[in-house]
Specification:
Elements lengths: L7 H13 L4 H8 L3 H11 L4 H38 L1
Helix pairs in contact: 1-2, 1-3
């Protein structure tokens, strides 16, 4: 998955700029070099968040991904051990 060029703080400022209504969403997107679909995807993910909340969300997502990897590794180990036991019996 491609990583974002924008930080959570930048994303939130872009969303706030789009929601202020000074410019159209299309104009805000062109100014920052993003597509409108990206803007709406960000709004769905970060809408109404503060910068601290967005940073915490990123930390939690990173930790969740790490825990999922650990669980997958353990499940593979358990499966391998079950196969080994089945062969011995």
């Amino acid at each position: 998955m491609k990583t974002s060029q924008h930080t959570a703080e930048q994303i939130i400022k872009i969303l706030e700029q789009g929601e202020r209504g000074d410019q159209t969403i299309g104009a805000v997107c062109r100014e920052h070099g993003i597509t409108e679909s990206t803007f709406y995807r960000w709004r769905k993910a970060y809408g109404g968040m503060s910068v601290n909340e967005a940073q915490r969300l990123k930390e939690l997502e990173k930790e969740n991904a790490r825990l999922k990897r650990l669980l997958a590794e353990r499940l593979l180990e358990v499966d391998a051990l079950k196969e080994l036991i089945a062969k011995k019996v």
